[in-house]
Amino acid sequence: MTPLEKARGxxxxxxxxxxxxxxxISAESGIPTFRGPGGLWRNFRPEELATPEAFxxxxxxxxxxxMWRRGLIAEAQPNPGHRALVGLERRTLVFTLITQNxxxxxxxxxxxxxxxIHGDIWLSxxxxxxxxxxxxxxxxxxxxxxxxxxxxxxxxxxxxxxxxPRLVWDDAERAxxxxxxxxxxxxxxxVYPAAGLISQARxxxxxxxxxxxxxxxxxxxxxxxLSGELLPKLLF
Length: 236
Known about the structure:
It is a single chain. The protein is of the alpha/beta class. The chain is built from 10 helices and 9 strands. Strand 2, helix 7 (105-109) and strand 3 form a beta-alpha-beta unit. The radius of gyration is 18 Å and the shape is elongated.
């Protein structure tokens, strides 16, 4: 039995499936990863901009970077990997898609039950009150302000040094614990606490990635290649 056949067999008998996706699946749609060669912007590294401290120091600069990223994402399209996960959700009784990606490509592909543990780049939220809104703009003129309290708006993403949204994280952990199979696709499994979901799994794990990860030796099936090529093969 090949690894692909074993993975198909695991999914065929599963009524509860959880999936964890990372930057790799978005990179296949042309979105640069933080750690890739396209990760630089105006001589800044993402780690220098995606922090509360950077926003407090220069919110205009941080907003300009996020609008630039939104522009890149707006030009990208969901790939066959995104669409395969939509097909898997439709045929699975209980399905939860947990993603580290903030780009919204899973939504655009048609996935429904998504837990965005790192937030959503298309969301703007107030730094003071509970106000938030979906914002599709890709250009910024000045620093956006909250229409309710006039405080500064910020991108609705989780920055380095911030806690993950508690309710979303709790749902993600619950989905992994309750699943019968966990698929991990397009992630280096080096970013925590997201990678910790893999070690929490007490079920077979199917790993799909172009390279080995710290969890490769312990998963049930490790498939090497692009998510856009391998995820459709799990279904068809």
